[in-house]
């Protein structure tokens, strides 16, 4: 029999998404990790920067455990007078190592909060409307997992657009076997079906 451990289950799914996001940065140039590949500017390093801020805010400030205590927060932090979307892209002065390092530090900070508090522990989300600010750790864990997995999906698509790399993790691509010709034929078939559906 396996004893249920909801906190461990939630943390495992969060860590899977964290790891998936970071490995999407591997073996790419500085240009490619910053390159905006959607009309709204979605880019790999910006996604990592954003989720670092999400974790530090939700698992830090929400539960009275702020990360930025001994040093001032970055200019893009929610308490600062940042331009819109400042957490969704990296400036030329913000290195990949800095942002990935901040994300790993966020994991450690978040994990300490998760390990220290019970799932029904309550906190206050400072940037939410007052009438719904009070939350539980369980609620925040589910919210951050959903947000991180969503952005990991964005990263999957952006990375595929950059160099064709696909997959769930570094070691598991979860894709059907097929060479480049197979995939080109598959894509042409989908295009044909889409046009047929549109004409009917």
UniProtKB/TrEMBL annotation:
InterPro entries assigned: DinB/YfiT-like, MST-like
Protein known as: DinB family protein
UniProt source species: Streptomyces purpurascens
């Amino acid at each position: 029999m396996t004893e249920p451990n909801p906190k461990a289950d939630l943390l495992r799914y969060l860590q899977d998404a964290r790891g998936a996001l970071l490995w999407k940065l591997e073996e790419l140039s500085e240009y490619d990790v910053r390159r905006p590949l959607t009309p709204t500017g979605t880019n790999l390093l910006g996604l990592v920067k954003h989720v670092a801020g999400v974790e530090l805010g939700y698992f830090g400030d929400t539960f009275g455990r702020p990360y930025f205590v001994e040093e001032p927060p970055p200019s893009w932090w929610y308490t600062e007078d940042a331009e819109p979307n400042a957490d969704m892209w990296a400036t030329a002065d913000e290195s990949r190592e800095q942002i990935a390092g901040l994300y790993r530090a966020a994991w450690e900070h978040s994990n300490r909060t998760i390990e220290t508090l019970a799932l029904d522990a309550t906190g206050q989300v400072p940037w939410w409307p007052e009438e719904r600010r009070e939350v539980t750790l369980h609620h925040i864990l589910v919210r951050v997992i959903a947000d991180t997995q969503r952005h990991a999906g964005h990263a999957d698509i952006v990375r595929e657009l950059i160099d064709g790399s696909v997959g769930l993790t570094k070691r598991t691509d979860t894709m059907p076997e097929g060479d480049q010709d197979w995939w080109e034929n598959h894509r042409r078939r989908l295009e044909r079906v889409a046009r047929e559906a549109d004409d009917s």
